[in-house]
Specification:
Layout: E1 4-10, H1 13-28, E2 32-39, H2 51-56, E3 63-65, H3 74-95, E4 99-103, H4 110-118, E5 123-126, H5 137-147, E6 150-153, H6 156-164, E7 172-174, H7 191-198, E8 206-210, H8 221-235, E9 238-241, H9 250-263, E10 268-270, H10 275-285, E11 288-291, H11 295-298, E12 307-310, E13 323-326, H12 330-340, H13 343-348, H14 364-374, H15 379-382
Parallel strand pairs: 1-2, 1-4, 2-3, 4-5, 5-6, 6-7, 8-9, 8-11, 9-10, 11-12, 12-13
Helix pairs in contact: 1-14, 3-4, 4-5, 8-9, 8-12
């Protein structure tokens, strides 16, 4: 029997962590042939050459497509998309996948999405229908939704929104967020193991700080980071800082945060690449998350971890009760941190459920794999009608 070829594109440590379970499920199914293309931040030395994490999982990389990402400016990122169009067009033409899988809203995903569209390869999009009104990711995500034939939303509200965008209901699924599957296996580190790997004592309360550029608010990253660091200092907490992504001004943010850690070696730790296992382990043992990462909304609720969400980058996303939204001022961030670490607020999160974990059984990836396996591959799959709401 001819195996169905499913090609997954991963461009960063973040989306690989979310795709890992799905890639493993496809790999284990004898009726399917997994193809993987690593691109974007995976190949950039400054982001840790994280393509090696993929191979360390026993997953073969079929193609590597360099986009020469720098994180310096919007123009540089636009040039990266241009490079990607050529690279992905050639890769898809050679690999001839039956379906291309894309997850999320990174700008570099426009390159494989357009390439697949032009070559009439159906796209399966994961995490569509979400909102992040403070970033260009919002527009990228919705654009990919309109280019895709299959949709795997993470909540009921997001599924409804995809249908509202004109997508056929029988092609829009809600299985929850696949990245949460890892929480149901013996994959997380113990406190002692995490402490050893980080080289950082976990005896005191620690904040996990992840701050990305607010790409619809250009020119303000330097001031934003200064306020963030000042608030962390004033809180008295220790902190682990992780690297911003390759959006415009990401390099500036990383330089400022790394410098802050160098100036405060006893309290602050710069770890540019945690990896998904260590990242989730931090969510389990740390006192609070501070920043503007989507993981504060999708993954942190599973640990009932308080999150101080700064600014507008995640405005519009479904939230659980663990999220405290604050403006990007020193005073507001500090107030948010003090509320988050208070015993009263932590106690209020008892019994809270994660809205992104629909079935609570760690099988979202398996359900997505089964849908990709059984959907009929025909010319009709790439033909899209607009579904009107009555």
């Amino acid at each position: 029997m001819k195996r169905r070829k499913i090609c997954a594109v991963t461009t960063s440590r973040a989306d690989f962590g979310l795709l890992r379970g799905l890639l493993k499920a496809i790999q284990a199914d004898s009726a399917l042939r997994l193809q993987v293309i690593a691109s974007g931040m995976h190949l950039a030395p400054k982001f840790g050459r994280t393509w090696r994490d993929i191979e360390a999982e026993g997953i073969q990389i079929d193609r590597k497509i360099s986009l020469r990402l720098t994180g310096e400016s919007c123009l540089d990122n636009l040039k990266s998309i241009g490079l990607g169009l050529n690279g992905f067009a050639e890769a898809f033409a050679e690999l001839k996948p039956g379906i291309v899988v894309l997850l999320g809203d990174r700008f570099e995903l426009l390159a494989p999405a357009i390439s697949a569209l032009m070559l009439q390869i159906p796209i399966a999009h994961i995490h569509g229908g979400e909102l992040s009104e403070g970033a260009i990711d919002d527009s990228v995500r919705h654009a990919i939704t309109k280019l895709a034939s299959l949709h795997f939303a993470a909540t009921k509200a997001y599924r409804r929104r995809i249908i509202q965008m004109g997508e056929s209901p029988d092609r829009v699924f809600n299985f929850g967020a696949p990245g949460l599957d890892q929480l149901y296996g013996p994959t997380l580190l113990t406190r002692q193991e995490l402490e050893k790997e980080l080289g950082f004592s976990l005896e005191d309360p620690i904040a996990l700080v992840t701050y990305h550029p607010v790409t619809r608010d250009g020119g303000t990253a330097d001031a934003q980071v200064s306020r963030l660091v000042a608030a962390i200092k004033a809180s008295g907490l220790k902190a682990v800082f992780t690297m911003a992504n390759a959006d415009a001004q990401g390099a500036l943010i990383n330089d400022r945060l790394q410098a802050a850690c160098t100036r405060n070696p006893g309290r602050f730790k710069w770890i540019p690449h945690l990896g998904h296992r260590r990242y989730l382990s931090c969510l389990k043992y740390f006192a609070v998350m501070v920043g503007n990462s989507s993981s504060g909304l999708t993954e942190a609720p599973s640990f009932r971890l308080p999150v101080v969400n700064i600014g507008d980058r995640q405005r519009g996303r479904v939230r659980a009760a663990n999220v405290i939204d604050v403006s990007c001022s020193r005073a507001a961030i500090l107030r948010g941190i003090m509320k988050a670490i208070s015993p009263r607020f932590r106690a209020s999160l008892r019994g809270m459920r994660n809205p992104y974990d629909r079935f609570h059984d760690g099988r979202a990836s398996e359900r997505i794999k089964d849908a990709l396996k059984h959907i009929p591959l025909s010319d009709d799959l790439v033909k899209k009608n607009f579904h009107d709401l009555l």
